[in-house]
Amino acid sequence: MTIPKKRIRPIAAIKALRALLRDPEDTRQVFLVTDALNGDSGRRNFERFRRTETGEAVLRERRVLLDRLCDRDRLSKLPSGTLGRQYYEFMAREGLTADGLVEASRTKTNDPPSDDVRLFAERIRDWHDLQHVLTGYGRDGLGEVCVLTFFCAQGWNPGLLLIAIAGMFKVAKEVPGYPIKRAVFEAWRHGRAAAWLTGLDWEGLLGQQLDTIRPKLAVRTPVIYQRIMERHTAASAGAGALGVAAE
Questions:
Q1: Any residues with CB less than 8 A from the CB of 121 and at least 6 apart, and which?
Q2: For residue 241, is it within any domain?
């Protein structure tokens, strides 16, 4: 089963991107941009995923990652320092729920995906916040841009790449004097060097220690990003474009 080729709709993408830049919390626009620009990239990513050991298991067993991520009681009881426990604490601290992107991801399409493709697309959507925990980037404006850049570096995704580039220039303009572009380029390099996140057995990783997972997957510490956040926090007590996480 494959994803049919989709035509590129640049005008729709530009409209959605403008709306997103006006209101960064309107996450529905992210899905509209990617739906308009990604074209054949989704098919290629799916084909690569289903050929992996994890992909075969996920599709065969009809695994729904969201079910595991929504089990807050189970996550809260995992040992301290594990990916799942860190994810639980991250979501609690940020006031988020694992199913927060479900409604925003619903976009109209003339070619409804197959069950396998839908399962794959939902899996990518649902591990977005796990990426934050694994890579060490926060939910501030720069952190979101860096997570998108990290992901784009691992596979061609023109929609997310456009959002990341536009976001980089927006953050750089709002907080001049910080090495924003260097932090984003660092995220790109780290994404290229790391294991392919899309093919990970996220369910199996939840119970493993985060400090053990990162070196195994070649996920490096975001040094420039961390220095920017430390400097910004010291200068403004956590206020401003970099210090306030999106709700």
A1: 42, 113
A2: no
Domain containing 137 equals 10-236
The dihedral built from the CA positions of residue 6, 7, 13 and 16, taken in this order, carries a sign that is negative
Q: How many domains does the chain have?
A: 1
Please check whether residue 212 lies inside any domain of the structure: yes
Q: Is residue 97 part of a domain?
A: yes
The angle, 0 to 180 degrees and rounded to 10, between the axes of the packed helices 158-174 and 28-37 is 130
The amino acid that residue 83 corresponds to is L
In tens, the pLDDT along 43-63 reads 888 999 999 999 999 999 999
Structure tokens at 176: 């001049």
The Cα 42–Cα 197 span in angstroms is 15
Report yes or no on 22 lying in a domain.
yes
Contact 148, 163 (CB under 8 A): yes
Q: Which tops the pLDDT comparison, 236 or 168?
A: 168
pLDDT in tens, 171-182: 999 999 999 999
CB 233 within 8 A of CB 241: no
Residue 80 burial (10 A CB sphere; 0-12, 13-18, 19+): exposed
